[in-house]
Design brief:
The chain has 726 residues and is mainly β.
């Protein structure tokens, strides 16, 4: 019998679902002028393109959140979960990457190597780079670290989200919210750096050209360095957003973002890298002996990327309480990947390995996505309906160089004592279409207020996905997958008071059928390349309440399942059993005392593989998923010293299995951060200095184990900045 492995897919398995755990939306405001300026902006777009009238509060907490297709709602009036990390937190923690943000939520685990694109695991499920990352609610290709200098907030949508986003994994969705124009002139300049060698300059300008036309411009020039030796390079970013309001009812915005990054590419340890005769004990000893700051790639292993994103959006108030909105976005991502890696199955117990090269020049992705929908409110027999209906499309083609080389052996090196090797000759040929996947959708939702205390939510989305792959010598695209289905979602809310809500929801979804492996007994039979779609589901119940001086606490239980694609005893690949994740989440965010703000949370997760037909795997835990996580970040303004604030964080991650048979365990770890912020006047200028020291104890740990790879946490490092507004 073959051991279970994640179902392979040319698109990386996209899973559909609906329903999300209510989490606190930690609001954008700010202790300083930059955050306050963005809070004064009277408009922004949420994950669904819904207009939000800024209701931002100080203290990392807000009583409003994106409600998906039914607009901005009080968090006490929605059965959905969107944890929002606002600009204020991005500034105070000196965020440089998505992983820096993810640790503020107990349900997320970082699963990306230094210098590469940021990916995370949510509720135990890996997010998909092609479908799980959104920008103003629309798909973009997450294969390069996204800039945060032009972002107002980062939203983490928890749980299956197919009603709002179509084909997505059941863990959740990451959405980036853009900065909007300010009503008053705004200028912000920040110099930043770190102890690893990074240094850069960021300029942020906002204001109005006229009464009807506003702007927001951000630009960055920097040298970025990682804690890994030689993983460094330049980064340039510029973005501009213009917002035009020709009438009181019509608002149009146009924006563009360009970024260029170039880093050496680091080889990454993985389970697949080890030779078969290396025992689990020897693997552990080698990982513990390895210094994660050691560069085990080659200088010629580069990863230059450039990406351009442009979008246009419009919002028109049809009538009182009725609005139509539309948005379209085009991206171009270009990569020239020359990776010096560890050849599969060659890593020996003494650290020796065969260094290979993966050469794939001129990878180009051109994802396009658009949506249009109407939101409104009406009454029937004294019952209020908040509805939304509309449609969405996305097109995501990939092109790469035909004849690019993979797995050429450059020579032998050692992870404990790396050796410089010459770059082997590689083929460079013409670009061809490699794959395309298309999505179309129609949706409708209704939030029904039966009474002031009792509400029902119902939604349904029809989604269609089509995959086109280059499988023949003629270099033409052939359809390899097409399917569609309806996805329902229902929820109930009981609100005995304005600041207390009990809720529950049930959601179903569909997942794209898994690609049948070539070594499966049913490969090619009947002309099917994929398994049929599989259903996912979630059950969830919880409570939300305001406590203390405006802090918000949430607690919830969830149960998510997705079918398990694996081999049976006859090597036939199909759905056998389920992967079930049950858990409890608790969060507390906001101002808990005068001058004291916190972001705290905890997760207990019981992920289980349920496959009675395979006693070896039945009851095992999925690899890379911790049993528990706890996070606490606190910021305290020292009253005795005006302008001074102290902050710190404690982040605890439990044990995880590194392999599917649960024979190899990664230790739990604790990371401790400390920092300070000091605002002062220098002449007529208001300056703010920040210093954050991450991992003050210099703990050594494996941060993530996604996709079979080991991603090491950074050693102790200092991050500093000096900002001025004028």
């Amino acid at each position: 019998m073959k051991v279970f492995r994640p179902a392979p897919s040319l698109l990386a398995l996209a899973i559909v679902g609906a329903g999300c755990l209510p989490q606190v939306a930690m609001a954008q405001s700010g202790v300083e002028e930059q955050a306050a300026a963005d809070a004064r902006a009277d408009q922004r777009k949420t994950a669904e393109g819904i207009l939000v009238v800024g209701k931002r509060e100080s203290g990392y907490s807000s009583d409003t959140q994106s409600g998906g297709t039914f607009g901005e709602q009080s968090i006490f009036d929605t059965p959905f979960s969107v944890t929002t990390i606002p600009q204020e937190v991005l500034l105070d923690q000196q965020v440089r990457a998505l992983g820096d943000i993810a640790r503020n939520d107990p349900s997320t685990v970082v699963s990306s190597p230094p210098g590469f694109n940021d990916t995370v695991n949510v509720r135990g499920f890996d997010l998909d780079n092609s479908t799980s990352y959104r920008r103003e609610g629309l798909i973009f290709q997450n294969q390069v670290q996204s800039p945060f200098e032009n972002k107002a907030a980062v939203e983490i949508v928890k749980g299956p989200a197919s009603v709002r986003y179509g084909f997505t994994p059941p863990g959740g969705v990451i959405n980036y919210v853009l900065k909007r124009p300010t009503d008053t002139p705004y200028q912000f300049v920040q110099a930043f750096g770190d102890s690893f060698g990074s240094a850069g300059l960021h300029v942020d300008l906002g204001g109005r050209i006229s009464e009807t036309l506003g702007y927001r411009i951000n630009a960055v020039a920097s040298h970025e360095a990682s804690f890994v030796e030689d993983v460094a390079g330049p980064r340039y970013m510029v973005s501009a957003l213009f917002e035009w309001k020709p009438t009181d009812r019509l608002t149009i915005d146009v924006e563009a973002e360009y970024q260029f990054r170039e880093l050496e590419e680091q080889a990454t340890l993985s389970l697949g890298a080890f030779a078969d005769d290396v025992t689990p004990e020897e693997r552990r000893a080698l990982i513990e002996a390895f210094d994660p700051t050691t560069f085990i790639g080659q200088e010629w292993g580069t990863y230059p990327t450039s990406n351009f994103i442009g979008s246009i959006g419009a919002r028109y108030e049809i009538a009182d309480k009725w609005t139509v909105q539309a948005r379209a976005q085009q991206m171009r991502l270009v990569r020239d990947q020359q990776a010096a890696g560890i050849a599969f199955g060659t890593l020996q117990a003494n650290g020796d390995f065969a260094q290979d090269i993966f050469f794939d020049a001129n990878q180009v992705r051109d994802p396009f996505s658009a949506e249009i929908f109407v939101t409104g409110q009406f009454d029937t027999f004294g019952i209020t309906h908040d509805i939304a209906f509309g449609g969405a499309i996305s097109r995501n083609p990939l092109r790469f160089s035909l004849g690019g080389d993979c797995c050429l052996i450059a020579g032998t090196s050692n992870i404990l004592d790396p050796v410089a090797l010459p770059r082997p000759p590689v083929n460079e040929t013409s670009d061809v279409d490699a794959i395309r996947f298309n999505q179309d959708a129609l949706f409708v939702s209704d939030l029904i207020s039966l009474t002031d205390q009792f509400k029902l939510f119902g939604a349904v989305r029809w989604s269609r996905q089509e995959n086109l792959d280059r499988f023949n010598d003629a270099q033409t695209l052939e359809r390899t997958y097409e399917d569609s289905d309806f996805v329902p979602n229902v929820g109930v809310l009981f609100t005995p008071s304005d600041r207390l809500t009990f809720y529950g929801n049930y959601s179903e979804g569909i997942t794209e059928g898994a690609l049948i492996p070539e070594d499966a007994a049913n490969f090619g039979l009947g002309g099917d390349a994929f398994l049929p779609p599989a259903a996912t589901r979630q059950i969830e119940a919880g409570v939300k309440a305001e406590v203390l001086t405006g802090a918000i606490i949430t607690a919830a239980y969830f149960d998510i399942s997705q079918p398990l694609a694996t081999f049976d005893e006859n090597d036939v690949f199909g759905y056998l059993g389920d992967q079930v994740h049950r858990g409890v989440e608790v969060t507390l965010t906001g101002k808990v005392a005068p001058g004291l703000r916190i972001i705290a949370g905890g997760l207990y997760l019981d992920p289980t593989i349920c496959n009675p037909d395979d006693p070896i795997l039945d009851g095992k835990r999925p690899s890379g998923v911790p049993e528990y996580q706890i996070n606490l970040f606190a910021d305290y303004e020292v009253a005795a010293v005006p302008g001074l604030a102290l902050n710190g964080g404690v982040f605890l991650t439990g044990e995880r299995f590194a392999d599917e048979l649960n024979t190899f365990t990664l230790d739990d770890y604790v990371r401790v951060d400390l920092g300070l912020r000091y605002a002062f006047d220098l002449g007529d200028q208001r300056l703010t200095a920040r210093l954050n020291v991450r991992n003050v104890t210099n703990a050594s740990y494996v941060e993530g184990a996604g996709f079979g790879f080991f991603f090491f946490g950074a050693p102790r490092g200092a991050f500093f900045s000096l900002a001025s507004e004028f």
